[in-house]
Amino acid sequence: MPEVSMTVNGKPAKGQIEGRTLLVDFIRENLGLTGTHVGCDTSQCGACVVHVDGRAVKACTMFAAEAEGAEVRTIEGMAGTDGTMHPIQQAFRDHHGLQCGFCTPGMVMSAAALLAENPTPTEAEVRDYLEGNICRCTGYHNIVKAILAASGQDVSRIAAE
Ligand code: FES
Ligand code: FES
Fold first, then answer.
1. I need a surface site. Which of 15, 24, 48, 124 has the fewest CB within 10 A?
2. Ligand 1 center–CA 9 separation, angstroms
3. So what's the pLDDT on residue 161?
4. Ligand nearest to C-alpha 143
5. Residue nearest to atom 1 of ligand 1 (CA)
6. Per residue in 87-126, pLDDT tens?
7. Cβ(70)–Cβ(53) under 8 Å?
8. Which residues of the chain are modeled with pLDDT < 70?
9. How far apart are CA 74 and CA 12, in angstroms?
10. Count of Cβ atoms closer than 10 Å to residue 77 Cβ
């Protein structure tokens, strides 16, 4: 079997894979990083979003071999080394942006990519960006609020839900 190597959360990672191995399966099964979820088999849910060379990517839509040499970041790479939550994670917690939590890793990774390219998005821009991330629990309101809060915007006038 061919070998693939990449950097994952700042550390070298490699493994033997089949050509058809998806990046999400390499991350979960070879590397044991199970924070990246699989919620569908139709590339719709966004639970599997990671960053590949700084871009948000649905890891179920990419072969692991295509990430050869890439810098990959998963949800496990978001918190500080001392366990301090990333500001986006903290905002999800503070603003009740999760219930069951299944969609949350993908939501946080998508939010981080959004804020990297648009540091102060409008509510409409956040909703538009999250089109590829499905949440079955929250109704999205508090997720959007959390992301706006993480961007440093005043969300005190946005009602809780
Ligand atoms: S697992 Fe649903 S989009 Fe990737
Ligand atoms: S919090 Fe349950 S799917 Fe989003």
1. 124
2. 20
3. 58
4. 2
5. 38
6. 999 999 999 999 999 999 999 999 999 999 999 999 999 9
7. yes
8. 160-161
9. 14
10. 17
- Return all residues near 14 (Cβ < 8 A) that are at least 6 apart: 3, 4, 5, 6
Ligand 1 mean position to 103 CA, how many Å?
10
Q: Write the DSSP symbol of residue 75.
A: G
Pairing mode of beta strands 71-73, 3-8: parallel
Instruction: Work out the percent of the chain whose per-residue pLDDT is above 90.
Output: 95
Ligand 1 center from residue 157 Cα (angstroms): 33
Which two tokens mark 129?
A: 């960006």
Choosing among 1.10.150.120, 1.20.1050.10, 3.30.1360.10, 1.10.3720.10, the CATH entry for 87-150 is: 1.10.150.120
